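User: My advisor asked me to double-check a structure prediction for Ankyrin repeat-containing protein before group meeting. I don't want to rely on an old file, so could you generate it fresh from this sequence?
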Amino acid sequence: MSLSQEEMDAIIYDARDGDLDFLKEVFSEIVPGSVLPTIKDDITLSTPVHMAAANGHLEVVKYLLSLLPHDEAVALVNQANESGNTALHWAAFNGHLPVVQLLVEEYGADVFAKNSSNHDALFEAEKNGQAEVENWFLSKFAIENDVRVEEDGENTKITFTPGTESKELDREAAEAEKSRADSVAAVADSTASLSL
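Assistant: Sure, here is a fresh prediction for Ankyrin repeat-containing protein from the sequence you gave:
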């Protein structure tokens, strides 16, 4: 089943406005939920999930994503619009922490995805003064992570191990202090032998 752009726009606008009752009526009586991934604004390429997330409509986001098998919902959550923004970028930018948490924890939203301006969701939250979202990201995905990137085109994988950077810096600082102490001792020994 395919929808006209006018029909898609109506669904997108209702998601933006948080009209859960209308969306439930549409997807239970008029169109199957399986068409959800095909519904996009013809100019911005934003989906109903983008719009609901951007406006903090947690129950609408939950409902829309429940219409799809989990793997399709994950793909929709990570779908970028024409500016490269995902639903997570918009939720973070507008400070909608419960939506951010749902997208990340339940649907694996890619927190490292970059938009066309090369910004990830953390940057968007920080740029727009959304401290609660920013702090959640920082507590969940600490800056001092050992990040490994395995480049493979569209299948690039990013893995990280929290906390390794500070442990490495502590080890290096201890080694530097030992080296400094050894140097001071060596200089003291050589100076002492010169004065004899």
